[in-house]
Amino acid sequence: MSSLEPSRIYLDPAEMPTHWYNVAADLPTPPAPPLGPDGEVVKPEQMQAIFPDAIIEQEMSAQRWIEIPEEVRDIYRLWRPSPLVRAHRLEAALGTPAKIFYKYEGVSPAGSHKPNSAVPQAFYNKQAGIKRLTTETGAGQWGSSISFAGQMFGLDVRVYMVNVSYHQKPYRRLMMQTWGAEVFASPSELTQTGRDALAKDANNPGSLGLAISEAVEEAASRADTNYTLGSVLNHVLLHQSIIGLEAKTQFDKIGLYPDVIVGPCGGGSSFGGIAFPFLADKAAGEKRAERLRCVAVEPTSCPTLTQGAYAYDFGDASGFTPLMKMYTLGHDFMPPGIHAGGLRYHGASSLVSQLTHEGLVEPLAVPQLATFDAGVQFARSEGIIPAPESCHAIRAAIDEALAAKASGEPKVILFNLTGHGHFDMTSYDRYFSGQLEDFAYPADAIRASLEHLPKVG
Amino acid sequence: MSSLEPSRIYLDPAEMPTHWYNVAADLPTPPAPPLGPDGEVVKPEQMQAIFPDAIIEQEMSAQRWIEIPEEVRDIYRLWRPSPLVRAHRLEAALGTPAKIFYKYEGVSPAGSHKPNSAVPQAFYNKQAGIKRLTTETGAGQWGSSISFAGQMFGLDVRVYMVNVSYHQKPYRRLMMQTWGAEVFASPSELTQTGRDALAKDANNPGSLGLAISEAVEEAASRADTNYTLGSVLNHVLLHQSIIGLEAKTQFDKIGLYPDVIVGPCGGGSSFGGIAFPFLADKAAGEKRAERLRCVAVEPTSCPTLTQGAYAYDFGDASGFTPLMKMYTLGHDFMPPGIHAGGLRYHGASSLVSQLTHEGLVEPLAVPQLATFDAGVQFARSEGIIPAPESCHAIRAAIDEALAAKASGEPKVILFNLTGHGHFDMTSYDRYFSGQLEDFAYPADAIRASLEHLPKVG
């Protein structure tokens, strides 16, 4: 075997984890609960209009291990366990003594980690007698994942897709339709929110906030319909723990353990998914986890964890959702139109935020051009063309490997390759043709939007 | 385990085959050699202007097993061994007693089986001191595969992409550029052929024949440059045998053997790749292979194996290549613009043609709409959205499974899922919106083009 042999560490489907890991059981201090507009703690029954009981229970649970239903594992097995791959060729290109591994989530039918949560969300809704799911989507990663998951359980799916994306990203829309979903440009005529918006401006380009409102309105107003969300919330991060749990089993097989774990961080589900199961070892006082660092990588254009405030804020731009304690740039912060659409969120998961606040997660902001540099270097050494979100993790992993080269340490680096870039080639086009720019959000603009934080908590 | 559990039969990278299988060693009668325009058998030295010696040797070899160089296996291991998957959910949807398996080749970085041959072609050229590879591409599957493979070995790659596709399919072009290739709209100003074509018509839309001529002209006129071809030729089918060899090992693991093998057939490399290693068992008189049927599926709009003549003909439209004994619709046959671009070829590999002529391969033509019906049914049960070429195999596999249901036989069906459809979503769009048509080529049009067959052999 040559030194360049890539090691793919497979797990047999029979070795797939049977339980998700809930980091809420291992938080150093109790989590701050979500609050209603009245400042009171949100009660489970307030969520029943849009979520099934099983999801609400998971959202509030402090139980460490939660069983993955057999019906969910059946669908996971269409692509899981996902491969853990040693990036031998990238290591050689960098000349680093570090061992770089990536967990590749792009093998799912929808091409990213998102189906890890879409499948159980569809299952629990089916079990609760729900007939239809609604959701919003921007770039389309979550919309396509819930379309796939709904089809697997025979649920109707309605996706409110931001009007601009609906017309600019027809491929993702067609993917959703191939899986049988109905996709509507938002604002639409189907909801009061949509009709009101169209009455004001018939050519409304739409926004994620507007699309959320339409999806929630439909779910709240119909007994047979529920709403689904692809990141941020606790139950989503719970489902994504399958990524890190598998990776731990795979590292066990080769007798290694990571020194650094790197993941892109927007809402926080892919980062939490890979990092939390390793943080469990730290919480349990395991010696092998003592030196472990977990790095959450965000764009400099949307620097939630590195420049935001740790405070109660709304989850959406319009102030419809409960208030959550999290790092936030302010709910009316509008990040520029960078290509890692999945990382353009003003806030971050409460769990990731708390662990960052408590020093267990290390935030890092990287500029856009450097992420594409890293993505192209990765594609040219390892073959896979990564999604722009994943490029953020690759940038940080490469920088860790170069630091290891400088210091001569044979570190073990693990990063989450959250998805492929097959539907993002126009972003690469702009990069190659020099049309991409770096954008660091001015500190005074952040200060201004932070002044609109709600006065609670 | 529930009855719906999908069984992914993984192979460990260490279990990957070390040798390719050459069906030329097991042909019932000697193969008909390629002939020059003078009717004489082509000599190896006549190919040296565009191919390295190792490839020429493989093209003419009758050796049964040919070792896969370690450097090639190193790259194969970036995605191989590919999974063999039991399509439990498709079986349930069909209500068939048949066991349906698919070998999934879409896991390669380029998204299809094509890199299986692109990688060794790049390796042998690198070994021979070649600095640059040329090729033509239409839809872009082969062009992207050779771009990836060239990058793995540090070779420059120039792709002549049919002008219309260059502008209509920017995503595939960008994929090639991400791997560092130069992509030119053909006809181009870089070759005499291209300049002549542009002089006649500055807005020439291009054709695959013209692009081949440009790529061959550049390769023939520069000592440091060679040409590569993605299907049809013997060495390409040799390399693709890795598909069927892995599948055999995977079936051995679960104690099964296929009754029917189905593959799409254009030039013939993906069909030969999956079927030939099983035909080896038949040639060796193995009892388990006695009942085996191998079905090559082509579009009714380009019915080479089912309605063509078995005769000597040119490999290209312009008559530049040697004459090959094969099923052909006539080299000036122009198939309609169906969406399975990879199956629009007037001829078929000499090896597939001979085995069809001798009754060991069973040809089948299927209409376009029925292939998309099958592809959507597959996506909605198994998740993966298949390439239009792969949909042809899925159509035939589903029909075999329905026949097994009618007869009550628990047949084992294997098909080659040659690639994903991430770059073909506009074809699905046309299907969903009712813009796709069936097209059976009229018999008199085929008779007319067969009248232009060269008078040799």
What would a concise description of this structure say?
The structure is a homodimer of 457-residue chains. Chain A is an alpha/beta fold and 457 residues long. Chain A is built from 17 helices and 15 strands.
Note the main attributes of this structure.
about 450 residues; alpha/beta; Rossmann fold; four-stranded parallel beta sheet; globular; pyridoxal phosphate binding (chains A, B)
What does the model show?
Two copies of one chain form a homodimer. Chain A is α/β, with parallel strands linked by helices and about 450 residues long. Chain A folds into two domains: about 10-20 and about 55-110 and about 235-430, Rossmann fold (3-Layer(aba) Sandwich); about 115-225, Rossmann fold (3-Layer(aba) Sandwich), CATH 3.40.50.1100. In chain A, about 40% of the residues lie in helices and about 15% in strands. Chain A has helices spanning about 55-60, 70-75, 90-95, 115-125, 140-150, 165-170, 170-180, 190-200, 210-220, 235-255, 270-285, 305, 350-355, 370-380, 390-405, 425-430, 445-450; strands at about 10, 20, 65, 85, 100-105, 130-135, 155-160, 180-185, 225, 260-265, 295-300, 310-315, 325-330, 360-365, 410-415. In chain A, strands 1-4-5-15-10-11-14 form a seven-stranded mixed beta sheet, with helices on both faces. In chain A, a hairpin with an 8-residue loop joins strand 12 (about 310-315) and strand 13 (about 325-330). In chain A, helix 2 (about 70-75) runs antiparallel to helix 4 (about 115-125), helix 5 (about 140-150) packs parallel to helix 7 (about 170-180) and helix 14 (about 370-380) crosses helix 15. The N and C termini of chain A lie far apart (about 60 Å). The model of chain A has no long low-confidence stretch (mean pLDDT about 95). Chains A, B: This is Tryptophan synthase beta chain.
